[in-house]
Specification:
By secondary structure, the chain is mainly alpha-helical. It folds into 3 domains: about 5-90, Winged helix-like DNA-binding domain superfamily/Winged helix DNA-binding domain (Arc Repressor Mutant, subunit A, Orthogonal Bundle); about 100-145, Dna Ligase, domain 1, CATH 3.30.1490; about 160-319, Up-down Bundle (Ferritin), CATH 1.20.1260. About 60% of the residues lie in helices and about 10% in strands. The protein is built from 11 helices and 8 strands. It has helices at about 5-20, 25-35, 45-50, 60-70, 115-125, 145, 160-190, 190-220, 235-240, 260-280, 290-319; strands at about 40-45, 75-80, 85-90, 100, 110, 135-140, 250, 255. The strands form 3 sheets. It has a 3-stranded antiparallel sheet with strand order 1-3-2. β2 and β3 form a beta hairpin. The chain starts with a helix and ends with a helix.
């Protein structure tokens, strides 16, 4: 675990202890460190077994009380997965998510879906409710169990890292889609200057695409298991497709003839829409690495919008 992250959570934990008149001890520090360095859904017994390896003097009651304190201060969250056990999972700087649980082998898959969150808010709003918190657990039989195969145990991953990976993938999808759009527009455009303008935007998009691809590869280099980690963030590609403008308004008799100014206006509008979309999308999540990816992509789209706007103004002055 990065030292900075552990330091932040230690400060949060110590603040909670001070406010509630509780003592800071080596045993509590060890339990916190063990919990933060272990992925998955951990029962009291799981954490107890791990800390006993390092300090045999720690009792299970101390583990239980410390985990309850970690829950109270927001570092951990209690969950139940249908087997009667209370478990604890990481909460601080981890995205709110839901679980799919196999009732036969207890395999658990974590996922987040902003579209699902939107539907839930819409439904409770119709009944006049102000939601405080919610939890969705979906129970069923996994594919391995249904096909009577040897159950494949899922690797335990840090949901914050997986969320960041999926956020980069979503930004990559958007960047690729924009490049495809501009490339297709340039190929069809019969206006020479407009065509050249669109090709320039394609090249700029390619540079940004390379940066995003390198960022994704950096995530994989840091943790090879991220390449095979199940999808965590489920987003609707149609939302991104709706950001794309139509070329029909620039066509005359099924022929595309878009001059440089029109091309710049179109690109400026698309960058503005993409920036607004990702800025609003980031607001759906708590402070996480993934959220920061969305915020940064929104800022980059806004910078591209400003660059295109300046080109548009320069083109007007020249004419």
């Amino acid at each position: 675990m990065p030292e900075r992250k552990l330091k932040d959570e230690l400060e949060l934990f110590y603040s909670y202890l001070r406010q509630n008149g509780l003592k800071k001890t080596h045993q509590k520090d060890l339990i916190l460190e063990t919990f933060l360095n272990t992925e998955g859904h951990l029962s009291v017994e799981d954490v107890y077994a791990l800390v006993k390896r390092r300090d045999k003097r720690i009792g299970i009651v101390t583990v239980f009380r410390t985990l309850k304190s970690l829950t109270a201060c927001g570092i951990a969250k209690e969950i139940t997965l249908g087997d009667g056990l209370t478990r604890f999972e990481h909460s601080y700087h981890h995205p709110h998510h839901h679980h799919i649980v196999c009732t036969e082998c207890n395999k658990t898959i974590e996922f987040v879906s902003p579209e699902l969150e939107r539907i839930q808010l819409e439904i409770v709003g119709k009944y006049g409710f102000l939601p405080i918190h919610h939890r969705l657990q979906i129970y069923g039989a996994c594919e391995d169990c249904r096909e009577h195969r040897t159950v494949t145990e899922l690797s335990k991953h840090d949901t914050e890292r997986v969320f960041a990976r999926d956020a980069v993938k979503m930004a990559l999808y958007m960047e690729k889609r924009e490049i495809e759009f501009y490339r297709a527009a340039a190929a069809r455009n019969l206006d020479p200057l407009g065509k050249e303008t669109l090709e320039t935007i394609v090249r700029e998009g390619g540079e940004h695409l390379s940066e995003l691809e390198e960022e994704l590869q950096g995530i994989y280099r840091q943790d090879k298991s991220m390449e095979k980690a199940p999808m965590f963030l489920h987003f609707d590609p149609c939302e991104l497709e709706r950001l794309m403008p139509g070329l029909g308004e620039f066509e005359r008799d099924a022929v595309l003839r878009m001059d440089a100014r029109q091309a710049l206006d179109m690109a400026s509008a698309l960058s503005q829409r993409a920036a607004n979309f990702f800025k609003e999308y980031a607001e759906k999540f708590l402070e996480t690495k993934g959220k920061r990816v969305f915020q940064r992509f929104a800022e980059e789209e806004m910078r591209h919008h400003d660059l295109i706007r300046r080109r548009r103004e320069a083109a007007v002055q020249v004419s």
